[in-house]
Amino acid sequence: MNRTELLQFLSKIDLFHFFSGEELTAFLEEAAEVQTAKGVVLFHEGDPGQEMYIVLRGMVKVFRGNRVIDIVKPGDYFGEMAIIENQPRSASVAALEDSLLLQVPLAVFQEYFSRQPKSLVAMMRTLSQRVRRDLEILGHDYEQINIMVHDMKNLLTPFHLLEVMERTVPGLAGNRYLACMVKARADLLVLMENALAQAKRLQIETPIHADSLDQLIVDLQESVWMIHPEIGGRGLRVEVTGSLPEFPFSSLGLCRVLSNLVLNAAQASEAEGCITIALSREDDAAVVKIIDQGCGIPEEVREKIFQPHFTTKADGNGIGLISCKQIIEETHRGNLTFEPTPGQGTTFTIRIPFSA
Ligand code: CMP
What we know:
By secondary structure, the protein is an alpha+beta fold. It has helices at 3-11, 21-30, 80-85, 106-113, 117-155, 161-168, 176-199, 213-223, 251-268, 320-331, and strands at residues 32-36, 41-43, 51-57, 60-64, 67-72, 77-78, 92-95, 99-105, 209-211, 237-242, 247-249, 274-282, 285-291, 335-340, 346-353. It is 41% helix and 23% strand.
């Protein structure tokens, strides 16, 4: 854009309505035009941020993980939050088209906008509109989740037939596979109720009872891993070594953690390989190691794998490990760590105090 076009363009944006001609010209001297090709990520969520951007041409998307939060069009701006709050970037931004941006460094932002209360009010208006819109989206999403969970619960009704079969089909009384399926249905219902309670921001009580982790693992082996297309279906074996006494834990919580970790291990492993679950006790804690001989976690991604939305899988969404960490640390006051398996692969270690 030439200078006259730029001046005209900016004077139409509410942030600059109260700038004199000289101020606008001086401001432009200190801002820089930046060309960005379609698809380029300008910055990632969590990066430090030292500048904001005004879109002159083209379009960018603001996103977190695989959720698009906003599309920013010509005349709008982004990247102001990190510099206002002196915090890392709240979201990632990528160009949706070849775009032209005006980059405003922190010092210029402070010099020009902090001196202009009316510009600050204009910015507050934009931020307030974003909050209002996000609240509407949040409300709508909550309604949708509510509707879907309600219908999912209805769709689960035929699984009550499992109990009917157990009672009426000769030879099925006390069948272990049926019992695993009945438990899976009950777990799903609890998880759905928890999802709803979470969306309502209600405190969720997670029941913790003394139980046998050895038995839980046997159940998971027989009812999930052996028949899972990416585990048993690829000829992978899950072997258990050691044993633990009964101790208090959330059965549903550890079911979710072990399923996530074993599936990750399987996805990193060659077909026909072996995953070991090693159970032991260390002082006053239960220790569970999930050991694979797979491709390992490259050095450069090791520090990112517990970050939300980080994934190395093409179709992953980066929430599995976060959920494991939350369940181990928040529900059980334990910890979840990983290190390379001697030789090859990765070992994830869960430590849960017996006093959880
Ligand atoms: P910043 O946090 O510096 O970097 C990411 C930018 O995305 C952020 O500034 C805002 O400009 C923009 N952004 C973050 N959250 C929202 C939102 N809810 N609606 C619109 N834009 C947003």
